[in-house]
Specification:
The complex is a heterodimer. By secondary structure, chain A is an alpha+beta fold. Helices cover 49% and strands 9% of the residues of chain A. In chain A, strands 6-5-4-3-8-9-7 form a seven-stranded mixed sheet, covered by helices on one side. Chain A has a two-stranded antiparallel ribbon with strand order 1-2. Helix content of chain B is 18%, strand content 36%. Chain B is built from three helices and six strands. The longest helix of chain B has 17 residues. The termini of chain B are far apart. Classes of the chains: A alpha+beta, B alpha/beta. At the A-B interface, helix 3, helix 5, strand 2, helix 14 and strand 9 of A face strand 6 of B.
């Protein structure tokens, strides 16, 4: 039995749907404590070096109420807020404490805070009307992670214009955001609940859900979300969330496997599509997904401060910007040669990661000077050649 | 005679293990239930215990380093910031003695013997899946 205290019953339904990708769900893993706890120790454990201990300790802290909140604030004061772990920050929204909530707001507003999306997500867990401005503002942020957290906040506020705002976010260019918005929109009126599943099991169609005409097509298309950065499957999160939501709604999985190749996902997708079309009594357009392009070099800046930037050069020398919905950037032959020269300047590093990587990072993947190279770095810790390439790419992409 | 019998037995065990089919597993299977501390795990994951499995995921080292990794947890998230995995959404993996590798953030496919069941460190249950790595690609 999960013990996440929810803002409302609807919040429960919403959170249940978001949970596959969110930390909030993980709170349920920990057993309630039977005796008073030493929260200062728990907080130290929750910010320690062993991630397995960190996760479990963070869950204990999240159950601790005012005493735990005070311990967190003492730790942040003594060590600096960015020394809190991402796991702990993410779960702090479960604690009802005004001072802690105020601290979370401060951290969200601080562009240099290491765990901004986690702090926003923590606030979103029990979103308050007075925090609406935060969630609304971050719906437009350049970081997909910030937009995801904001979407959860908007959903959990459960205000009258929530469906409109969520509906708008189902058009987000990043499938990791649009699919989440669709799952929350579908949950708005309790779709995917035990009732609709029972209907499906009885071989009758699930009832047409409120907002289903917006949410269901996005979810069906989300089953085919496909983009990858040199093997890093960007689309997986969207596919998983779309599948979890549709499986709940339809009451069956049609044999869909999140990690199956696109061709093998097609038949189960079409069965979800057909069922949803019957529910909506209208056709759902699912474009045939393009084969993943072969890129020869890639640069990704994932930044909760400055927003994301993904730039990739394909085998034909064309430069592409973005993820999922790629935009081609016109470059002339001289620029193309310059980018290739800069990329070839990246030496094979003796290590593959640089600096203390937290929320913000940059990645380079490509041929480099000595064959296939892939590395990632914390901001300001990039090898010089990667920095030079990144700087030039950003100039080209933002001119 | 007894020594020869032991050697033969060892050889047979080694051969049977070497020829043991790799059971392909994914996180959808491992995480397909709600875990609560102390509960009996579902039969479909319990029967994987002791089997040689192959699974794809992302590496997070246990000491925060990306170099010379000898132990790590394998998860199905490709983002450091996407959330805390539930207990059944990661596998604690240990490399063979004397072997290590570097993590470049790309997904890996790990093969090895899976052990299923709760393990506790101090106050905390820290894993329900552990894997002795045989190969990593």
């Amino acid at each position: 039995m999960r013990d996440v205290t929810l803002h409302s019953a609807l919040g429960g339904a919403i959170l249940a749907l978001v949970m596959p990708a969110m930390a909030l769900r993980a709170q349920g893993d920990a057993k309630p404590d039977a005796k008073p706890d030493d929260y200062d120790k728990r907080v130290v454990d929750a910010c320690g070096s062993n991630p397995l201990i960190r996760m479990q300790a963070a869950k204990r802290v999240a159950k601790g109420g005012a005493a735990a909140a005070a311990a967190v604030l003492r730790y942040a004061e003594a060590k600096g807020a960015s020394e809190l772990s991402s796991e702990l920050v993410m779960l702090l929204g479960g604690i009802e404490d005004a001072k802690l909530r105020a601290a979370l707001e401060t951290w969200v507003a601080d562009a240099d805070f290491a765990w901004r999306p986690q702090a926003l997500l923590a606030l979103a867990q029990k979103a308050q009307p007075t925090e609406r401005h935060l969630f609304e503002a971050f719906l437009k942020h350049g970081s997909w992670q910030m937009r995801r957290a904001a979407v959860v906040g908007i959903a959990n506020l459960h205000q009258d214009d929530g469906p409109r705002l969520l509906g708008k976010m189902t058009s987000d260019g990043d499938a990791r955001v649009s699919v989440l918005a669709a799952t929350l929109l579908l949950a708005w009126s309790g779709a995917g609940s035990a009732d609709t599943k029972a209907d499906a099991k009885a071989d009758t169609l699930p009832k047409k859900p409120e907002h289903g005409e917006v949410a269901l097509p996005v979810l069906v298309r989300g089953l085919d979300a496909e983009d990858a950065f040199f093997g890093d499957d960007f689309g997986r999160l969207a596919r998983k969330e779309a599948f979890d939501a549709l499986r709940k709604f339809c009451g069956q999985d049609f044999g869909y496997r999140v990690d199956a190749p696109a061709a093998e996902r097609r038949a189960p997708l079409q069965r979800f599509q057909k069922l949803c079309e019957q529910v909506l009594d209208t056709a759902i357009e699912v474009p045939q997904s393009e084969a993943l392009r072969a890129f020869s070099l890639g640069y990704e800046r994932r930044s909760c401060r400055d927003g994301d930037l993904v730039l990739r050069l394909d085998a034909q020398g064309r430069l592409w910007k973005g993820a999922f919905q790629l935009e081609q950037i016109d470059i002339d032959e001289a620029t193309r040669d310059e980018l290739r020269r800069l990329a070839r300047g990246v030496e094979a590093p003796r290590k593959t990661s640089f600096g203390r990587i937290r929320c913000d990072l940059t990645r380079f993947a490509g041929l480099g000077a000595a064959g296939n190279i892939s590395l990632r770095a914390a901001p300001e810790s990039e090898p010089e050649a990667v920095q030079a390439l990144g700087k030039r790419l950003v100039e080209i992409a933002t001119r | 005679m007894q020594a020869r019998r032991l050697t033969l037995a060892t050889l047979l065990v080694a051969l049977s293990f070497a020829s043991q089919d790799v059971v392909p597993v994914d996180f959808q299977t491992l995480a397909g239930f709600e875990w609560q501390e102390g509960q009996a795990l579902p039969e479909n994951v319990r029967r994987l215990s002791g089997k040689k499995i192959g699974i794809q995921g992302f590496v997070r080292s246990l000491d925060g380093s990306d170099e010379q990794i000898t132990a790590f947890w394998l998860i199905d998230q490709n983002c450091d910031c996407a959330g805390i995995p539930r207990m059944n959404e990661y596998i604690v993996c240990v490399m063979p003695e004397g072997r290590s590798f570097s993590n470049d953030g790309r997904p890996v496919r790990v093969t090895g013997k899976l052990e299923v069941g709760e393990v506790r460190e101090g106050d905390y249950v820290t894993s329900i899946y552990r894997l002795s790595v045989e190969s990593i690609d």
